[in-house]
Known about the structure:
Elements: E1 6-15, H1 19-31, E2 37-50, E3 53-66
Antiparallel strand pairs: 1-3, 2-3
Amino acid sequence: MADSVYRVTEVIGVSSESWEAAAKAAVQTAAKTVRDLRIAEVVRQDLTIDDGGVVSFRVRLGISFKYESGD
């Protein structure tokens, strides 16, 4: 197996439904423009609150993708 190089970048997903839905939206959106996604790690979760209630769920993900070798 050849050596590999990966990059990790952060993306933030937002959902009014759940943290899981926010994470899924972030990965699906990133996958539209970044090839070969490998791992998504939850870095942070938070909530937006308005008038005493939860308005949205936010998830910050560190996603990794493999650089193309050019071979």
